[in-house]
Amino acid sequence: MLGLRHTDEERRHTDRRASTRTTCDRRRGERRRARLRNLVFTGLALAVPHQISQGSTLWRLSRPSLRLMGPRVSTSIDSIMPVEPARAYDSIIVDAAKVYRVDARLIRSVMRAESGFDPSAVSRAGAMGLMQIMPEIANAFGVEHPFDPRENIMAGARLLRELLDQHQGNIPLVLASYNAGPGAVADWGGVVPPFAETQGYVRRVTGFLADAEN
Fold first, then answer.
1. Which CATH number goes with the domain that contains 108?
2. Is the residue at 7 inside a domain?
3. Would you call 144 a catalytic residue per the annotation?
4. In Å, what is the CA distance from 27 to each residue of 24, 32, 37?
5. What is the pTM of this model?
6. Residue 201 lies in a domain
7. How far apart (Å, rounded) are the C-alpha atoms in residues 185 and 208?
8. Residue 170 lies in a domain
9. What are the tens digits of pLDDT across the range 60-116?
10. CA atoms 109, 110, 111, 112: torsion sign
11. What burial letters (b/e) apply to 28-48, b meaning 16+ CB within 10 Å?
12. Which of 9, 30, 114, 162 is catalytic?
């Protein structure tokens, strides 16, 4: 019986192979279409740049399983023009001079004497930043970031404006008050106190002012 079944099965296979089919072989067609798709996808993968955006149709067709990388930006630097510290804050100084009606040369000269244009400078007494603002002045003027150049310069210019008004524009007294405090000037009868540091400070800043005017 096994032999008969085997013979019948072989005969059926032989008959099927010998017979003429009236329709296309479905499996063969599917395999042909799959091969065609693979060829198309391979061609796209080789021909299309890798920077195709994720939203494009070609991306979905050719690279569906890859993670989209961020956009690539290339820059080139042709030349570097360093800015000297004395000029790094010119625009802020000009703004502060206009807002508080203080000579920009006075602001720059005080900054030069106080910090040497170092925005991170801190004195032994706790003065901070370019204009060496004391913590109590920062609090009074609402300075939230005393080491921020703009906030610091604006606060220094405001303090200079108040001292200019207090001393009727007398620059030596303004500078003495900026250095030693208005109270020290008042205690000495409205003159530059006889402190070596304060007197040296007044001479230094007035010298910077004279250089700026020339």
1. 1.10.530.10
2. no
3. no
4. 9, 9, 15
5. 0.64
6. yes
7. 22
8. yes
9. 444 444 444 556 666 666 667 777 888 999 999 999 999 999 999 999 999 999 999
10. positive
11. eeeeeeeeeeeeeeeeeeeee
12. 114
